[in-house]
Amino acid sequence: MHAEETLVLVKPDGVARGLTGEILRRIEAKGYTIVDLRMVTASRELLEAHYEEHQGKPFFEPLVEFMLSGPVVAVRVAGNRVIEGFRSLAGATDPTAAAPGTIRGDLGRDWGVAVQQNLVHGSDSTLSSERELGLWFA
Ligand code: DAT
Ligand code: MG
Q: I want to staple 92 with a disulfide (CB 3.0 to 4.6 A). Which of 37, 41, 81, 98 is the partner?
């Protein structure tokens, strides 16, 4: 049986702040396996597909613009229950409320802009991870 896989993105704020290594370190220290990794300057089409569930929400356009603002690091991560486990490592969406000990809680903050810049993305279900891995590792 194959181990579960998830898509992690180090978002443009994480790359720009030099936190890629720290984020990958936490994934590896937890015991998950980095299976594949690439730095990507995403297209608008890729991002609109990736975030399709959020189309029409007030933060959608700021979110796409933010994700277009610089390169991201896309990571294929494997391990039993890694989808749930990485979401736990990442912490809550709002970095101000995210618990200390999590990536967003330790390394993120509110910057007073229209979209939360919270360093990482992690797939939220097996359906999402399969769809998202197909987009970023086509
Ligand atoms: P997550 O990344 O925790 O899965 P999400 O899928 O609900 O969160 O939203 C995608 C991204 O959009 C999220 O990482 C940050 C931004 N975002 C979500 N809700 C927001 C809000 N209410 N205001 C500003 N940005 C938001
Ligand atoms: Mg999400």
A: 98
18 CA to centre of ligand 1 in angstroms: 22
Task: State pTM to two decimals.
Answer: 0.98
Distance 93 CA to ligand 2 centre (A): 8
Per-residue pLDDT for 5 more than 80?
A: yes
Total number of domains in the chain: 1
Q: Which ligand is nearest to the CA of 90?
A: 1
Q: How far apart are CA 128 and CA 25, in angstroms?
A: 24
The minimum-distance atom of ligand 1 relative to the CA of 51 is 10
Output the domain CATH number for residue 75. Answer: 3.30.70.141
Report percent pLDDT > 90 for the chain: 99
User: Domain residues for 81?
Assistant: 4-136
How many CA atoms does the CB half-sphere of 40 hold within 13 Å? 21
Beta strands in the chain (DSSP E): 5-10, 33-40, 72-78, 120-122
pLDDT digits (tens, 9 = 90+) for 96-134: 999 999 999 999 999 999 999 999 999 999 999 999 999
